[in-house]
Amino acid sequence: MALFTDSLNQRSYPLLWLLSILGALAITPYLFYLGVMPADQPLWQSVLLQTLQKAIFFGIILWLCSLIIAKTDLKPFSLSGIRLGFVIGILLGGLILLLDWGLFGGAAIDKQAPPWWAGALGSLYGSINEEIALRLFLLSLLYWPLSKLFPSYRPLNLWVATSIAALLFGMAHLPALFEIMTPDATSITRVLFLNGIAGLALGWLYWSQSIWAAMVAHFMADLVLHAL
Fold this sequence. Notes:
- This protein is mainly alpha-helical.
- Helices cover about 80% and strands about 0% of the residues.
């Protein structure tokens, strides 16, 4: 079993790197329809440059992940929880829609939504690249020193790391908001609150099940929010 787990870990990092490149390509139509692609260069150059940047960035991130995770008790590459992630993702997407309309009345940003197929492709970036950066890397990085300083408080350590990562997950969505509209307090609160809820659920799936479960849940939630 240990040999199988080690082999799975070793194969997961290059697979995730290839998937991160796919995600970088998949987000292009979504960005194009939002009007945030650079206007001073041909589209193909923008796509090529963006893909190369993401390939380098996620190559470094995944290398760091391999070092950090090896120093923790996290087991992110098991194949458990994928079906659970599917169900939670749909429920999470529905919950965010209900909270959005109930608390914020929908948002002006939604009126600029790209076509459903661009949203579906863009969901690949969220589910792959954001999960690598925010859960596999950042949450693990936050948990690592906590697990060494307070080894008897594993659940608390995990939830502290998850909560901080969820807050940063919400903040990471603010630049996109600033690109397409002049934000106010309500729109900023909306982004932080709704993405924070998603970050808590996805973080829990990551450390209780696997990175694959978190990716599936993120993909399904994004499909509900951006493609349906």
